[in-house]
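Recap quiz, item 2
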Amino acid sequence: MTHNGTKDGPAIIVRELRRRFGKQQVLDGVTLECPRNQITTIVGPSGCGKTVLLKHLNLLLRPDSGQIFIDGIEVTRLNSRAIDSVREKFGMLFQAGALFDSMSVFDNVAFPLVEKSNLTRDEIRARVLEILRQVGLEGMEEKYPSELSGGMQKRTALARALIRRPSILMLDEPTTGLDPTRTTAIHQLVRSTQQRFGLSAVMVSHDVPQVFAISDRVAFMHAGKIEVSGTVDEVMSSENENFKRFLAGRAAGEEERPSSQVVATVGR
Amino acid sequence: MIEGVAALGNFVLFLFAALVYAIAPPYKPRLLIRQLRTIGAESFFLVALIGLFTGMVLGLQGYNTLRRFGSEGALGTVVALVLVRELGPVLAALMVTARAGSAMAAELGAMQATEQIDALTVMAINPVQYLVSPRVLAGVISLPLLTCMFDVIGIWGGYIIGVGLMGAPSGPFFNGIAQNLGSHDIAIGLYKALVFGMVVMWVCCYKGYHAARMATGVSRATTDAVVLSSVLILAWDYFMTAILL
C-alpha cells in the first residue's frame, strides 16, 4: 500500500485519475507519486494528456473520478475557498509564460504579493528585487514582457511563480520555443532554484533526453496512462516498448506537435 | 438543444457572478477607475461627435417635415423627445460597443489564449471578480452619463441647424422642451442606458472570456461580441419601450 499522503509523504499523490472530453478518454487511470524536494518530470508523445494532467494537479480542471493528494489533502472534492488555500502552496510556470502584457516585469512579479499579501510596499519591493536577481534579471524591472526575449520571459514567469515562496512548483513545458543554449540555461535555473528553495517540482517537458539530466524522477505517459515511472536510471533501463519507441523517435528528431493544439482539442 | 440551453445558462450565470463579485470584498477601486476611464472617459469624444451629427440631422429633417404642417415651433420638442427617449441611449450604447466593447472582447480573448486567465486562477485570484466585475460596473455607471451628454449635445446640434441655419423660431424651441420634456421621459432614457451598459459589458466580456484558444479565437470572439451586443441593444430597446411607455 502506498503512503496515504501525510505531511511527510510525497508532495503529490495521484490515484486512478480519469477524465473524458467528449468521446476522448484523455486521462485513463493515471497513478503517480511526486516525492518531496525532488524534480519529477512527465514526458510522453503529444496528445498523451500530460498538459491535461498538470491542469488537474493545479486544480484548473476537475477529474471525472480518482484522487489527488497535495501535501496530504485530497483536493478533487474541495470547494473553491479551500482550493484557494491549497493554491497558496504552489507556484505555476505556464508554457508561454502567461505574463500580463499590460504590466512591467516588476509589476508582474509583484502581482501575487500586491493582491494576496499584507506586505508593505517596501517589503514587496525588496522581495521582488531579490527574486529578480536570483533568476538573473536585475535591471530589467521597468521593461514590459513584449520587450523581453523568450528566455527572459520564462525567467520573469519563474520569478512570479516563486515570489510567494511556494513549496510545490509546477512547470508546463518551460523551454518551449527556446534555442538549445537557452533551454540548458533554463534547465539549470530550474534545478538550482529547486535546490535553493527545497521545492518539490513537477515538470511537463518535451526536451527528451536533455531534461533527464536535471530530473530526479521521470514518468512516461502514453494514451492517458503513466506506463513507466521511477528514477532516471530505472526508467532508462525500462523495457517498455512504447517508451523505447518514444526515445528512439526523439533521438531521430521527430517533430513535436505544438501542444497548444492539444489544449485546443480538449477545450476547457 | 441541450447544449444551447447549457450555453444560455452559462451566459446568465456569468452575469450573475459578475454582479455578485462586484459587491463582494475585496474592493479594488483602482480597477473600477481604470475601466471608467477606458469605457467612459475615452468614449466621450466619439459619443459627442455622433450626438452632434444626430442632433443636426434631426434638426434638418424635423424642420422640413414640421414646416409642411406649419408647426416649426414644435421642433425643439421633437428633437429633445426623440433623443432623450430613444436615440440617445441606443446610439451611445452602440458607440460604446464599437469602441470599448470590441476592445474588451479582444483583450479578454487574448488573455484567455495566452493562459493569463488561468494564471490568475492559479494565483487564487478570481478572474471574474478581477476582470469582469469592474468592467460591468463601469459600463453601468458610464453609459447613463454618456447618454446625458449625447442628449445635451444632440439638442444643441438640432438647435444649430433647425434654428441657426433653417430659421425655425428660437423661443419656442426651448420653451417647447421645457414644457413637454418631463422627468418621466428622462427616466426612461436613463433606465435604458443603465441596462444597455450592463448588456454591452456582459456580452463583450463573456465572448472574450470564452474565446477559443486558436488563432481565429480572438477575432471570432470580437465579431460575435459586437454583433450580439448590437442585436440585444435594439431588441431590448423595443421591449423596454413597450413596457415603460
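The mean pLDDT of chain B is 93.
The radius of gyration of chain B is 20 Å.
End of item.
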